[in-house]
Amino acid sequence: MFETAIFYLFAAILVLAALRVITARNPVHAALFLVLAFFTASAIWLLLRAEFLAITLVVVYVGAVMVLFLFVVMMLDINLERLREGFWQYLPLGAAVGVLMAAEMAAVLVGRWFGLSTPPRALPAGYSNTKELGRLIYTDYAYAFEIAAVVLLVAIIAAIALTLRGRKDARSQDPSQQVRTRRADSVRLVKMAPEKDR
Fold first, then answer.
1. Helices (H), the chain
2. What confidence tens digit (pLDDT) does each residue in 11-23 have?
3. Domain hosting residue 144, numbered range
């Protein structure tokens, strides 16, 4: 019963955080809500005893969100001085998100330590969560995994194409012109008259 209540609480937080990601006008707030959404999803995976997925989500996606935020700041040419000026303005929201993430992890751990959640079913000896996940991905869900890989590749190419801008002050090299160079073009011998002592 306790585990079901925690699941529905986390699911509600996850849905609200995801909605705030797409409705927040401030990119700082959107990034904070995205971190909250990822962290809540990892807490739900911990409830499902998928520890590897939970840790991967926190390490990869929560870490990558900050890189994504920096990418957006650089691409949109946001004034960083104005963002620094509003640090104390954003601090309460950031602190609230951090406290909420800590409370979610505490709820998962407290339920297991004090026996409020249902005991896990017995697993066979030598069972590996990561090994079972790999087996499922590369057997039953191989086609979906390949489609996801192609979608991510297209997204990377699109992101590079969107940020690729020609600048007038940028210096570049032409490899084809470098390959066509000859020794006569690179080295020039100049004959000078010898200097005479005065």
1. 2-23, 27-47, 51-56, 63-76, 80-85, 87-113, 129-138, 142-163, 175-179, 183-186
2. 888 888 888 888 8
3. 127-160
